[in-house]
Amino acid sequence: MRRRELSLTDRLAALREAVEVADGRLEVPEVARARTLLAKAGAREALGDATVVALAGATGSGKSTLFNALSGSEVSTPGVRRPTTGVAHASVWGEHGADRLLDWLQVPRRHRVQPADPALDGLVLLDLPDHDSIRLENRLEVDRLVELVDVLVWVLDPQKYADAAVHSRYLAPLAGHAGVLVVVLNQVDRLDDAAARACLADLRGLLDREGLASTPIVPTAARTGAGLPELRTELARRVAARRAATDRLAADARSAAAALAEHCAPDAGADRSRDRAEREGLADALADAAGVPAVVSAVERSARRRGAQHTGWPLLRWTSKLRADPLSRLHLGDEAARTSLPAAGAVQTAGMDAALRRARDAAGQGLPQAWRDELRRTAELSEERLADRLDRAVAGTDLGPDRTPLWQRAVGGLQWLLALVALAGVLWLLALVGLGLLQLDDVVPLPRVEGIPLPTLLLVGGLLAGLLLALVSRPLVHAGARRRARTARRRLVERVAEVADTEVAEPLAEARADHDRFCAAVGRAGS
After folding, report:
1. pLDDT < 50: residue spans in the chain
2. Pick from 359, 339, 374: which is nearest to 284 by CA?
3. Taking a C-beta distance cutoff of 8 angstroms, is the pair 367, 375 a contact?
4. Which residues are in the G domain (predicted)?
């Protein structure tokens, strides 16, 4: 079943959406041309339904003579007497807001055909300057008006009908505009019947090969009037339909969409979710560059330091305070402030660059070069913010509960008890020394355990038990420090992964989604 052709309004709306999506992202000339077309369409639709037909051709093709024959008077000076101002002439049939339309076309020379043929009512016929003029302004004027008129009648002659310049520059690029194009082979009166048929057959073959199979060819002889009724009939048919402007804009929209489609991947819209391994790889690389290993090491050493303070000998704990806490030196905990982490080294920077490049290449896989360039620009903008965002993310990460484990509190209390036992032994021994100096040592009996004086046993036992308890607690303290370091690393990497998603993955995915939206809109505009 044949699909219903999109209306011009919907087609232009789709093209406008494609241009809006591409604006600021896709830096290609096709976007600028599509934007110009949209401006032209808005202006042309507001100027009524008159049909603007332009006669274009080379010097000597008889274009101006044909224009005068259709106009019924010598409006445009043909041949060598033709002015070289590069200004088009206009003949107008009827009243259809032609003046406003010609003002927009910037055609000052106007002739109103009287009496007007009712079949041509609403026709605005232009005689363009010669496209092969030696004057640049003439050629530029032709190029300008060729883009604006509704129907283009290209006038060829038997001598130059196959001229490569006109076919490559004008006719072949209008392959999508076959419905708004008419080719006239003028001056056929200079050929005999056989030569005329051969010339027409050769021209038909040229146009067919250029994608203009549906473009009609009208043989004429402007000097004798041969073929003019057929040409008038062709023009009258297009004027009566009142669709020439719409058809031209639709053809322009399809052409613009086809040009934009060159910047679409063949599988636009396919799902390209980043796999888990790639996401983790990017997060790990950014974590290394952000100084996460240094923070994790500081967390572990800080946990060991505090664990040693709680489980070590109470009388020697003060020595650990001679060294600053390695975690506090990093100034973490305030996301609004900068940390004191060292800058990433060459190895970490290289790893981060490689991971970012892999993410960018994965997002741009299969895309045309213009969109890969856009992804590269997006990634570069993300990289400019990345270092600061990573530092703030690391600074504001909750590294886990900073509580002293109950077992360490219990060991700490036991250490104080053993210290008090040792201290009691010391004081007892000092008391015994004092009694000995006073020769009262025989007065106070000295308790013994297995022959060992109890004060000595308290002193030595307290010290040895405290040392043994500290040695036994050390592996447990280290194990707990490693657990806290693992928790800190996991949380830090999660925060870094959030930054990676926000600053890298999401902008790249957004650019890819814009590509898919752009291509969907282009597809609708060109359908």
Report:
1. 1-2, 80-85, 268-272
2. 359
3. yes
4. 53-164
